Amino acid sequence: MRELVKPPKLNKGDRIAAVSLSWGGAGDPDFLWRYRLGQQRLRDVFGLDLVPMPNTLKGSEYIYNHPEKRAEDLMAAFADPSIKGIFTCIGGDDSIRLLPYIDFNVIRRNPKVFLGYSDTTVTHFMCMKAGLSSMYGPSILAEFAENREIFDYTVKNLEKALFGTGEIGNVPPSEYWTGERIEWTEENKDKGKTLEKHAGYEVLQGSVPARGRLIGGCIEVIEMLKGTSLWDASDFDGAILFFDTSEDMIAPREITYILRNYGAQGILGRISGMIWSKPYANKYYDEYKGVIRKTLAEFGADGLPVLCNANFGHTEPMFVLPYGAMAEIDPVNKTFTIMEPAVINEQL
Hints:
By secondary structure, this protein is of the alpha/beta class. The protein folds into 2 domains: 15-166, Murein tetrapeptidase LD-carboxypeptidase, N-terminal domain (Rossmann fold), CATH 3.40.50; 176-338, 3-Layer(bba) Sandwich (Glucose Oxidase, domain 1). It is built from 10 helices and 16 strands. The protein has an 8-stranded mixed β-sheet with strand order 6-16-15-10-11-12-13-9. It has a 6-stranded mixed β-sheet with strand order 2-1-3-4-5-14. Strand 10, helix 8 (219-222) and strand 11 (240-244) form a beta-alpha-beta unit. Helix 9 runs parallel beside helix 10 (285-298). The protein starts with 14 loop residues before the first strand and ends in a 10-residue tail after the last strand.
């Protein structure tokens, strides 16, 4: 995988664009309070000034019907020199419809922090095609507007990834996790989630450390990318492939089918390692492990280092994964390390 351009780091006082690239619920009357709460948290915790783009808060119906306007917001946010970062409001299921309206040169000429997860995987691959390292991490409506407060683990990982120019280094697992879904009503905003003890990373297979540049995302969403202009199997050469499963909680057999496609494309033979998030609500945890191990063996990848139960994606709290950053899986010591910074100092 080629090295990607790192964006300039964020600083307190920076203007951050909020974008609705898939589901447009941030502007719906029932959820606007949630957007405002995320906006306040970004100001109070990180010192960032969150500003919506022209179409961000026009509501889910408008956003669904106008993918070109979503793309217009994204392009405008990248092109605006006063905007230092771009955060997604939430995921969804149809970011792929933005593809015809994307000007990759706009992204390429204006590298800046881009943050989101789930369906935002599509936009991460757009950034990657443009040569920019973007960040698989929290969204405004979910993690930044989390009930009561943002989880400390999430805050610490965001600060290290987005505001610091030193090597991210060892990424320890969180001591706890939650997959509880509390209805998004203003009356529930002070209701805390039930936390479970986190068992730490689990080594599924492999016995020697593996290094590679990070690529991946939500495994179901990536299926929509195959065969498009965003898909290039060579991007996986020597990479560490990270996979996240969504709240759809797809059946283990679907994981088998998807991985067999990667095997048939030769990708399982190209990568150096693999890391999996904790499944949503821990559903199918053991079943997923079984089909992953079996399917990798079908393609001669039974020695590939695979780390499971990591804190990113659809369970909370979460760390940040910068696309294209060099990382290491150490199966012996059960560690995951990001060996580079995610951001750089502003170029003069």
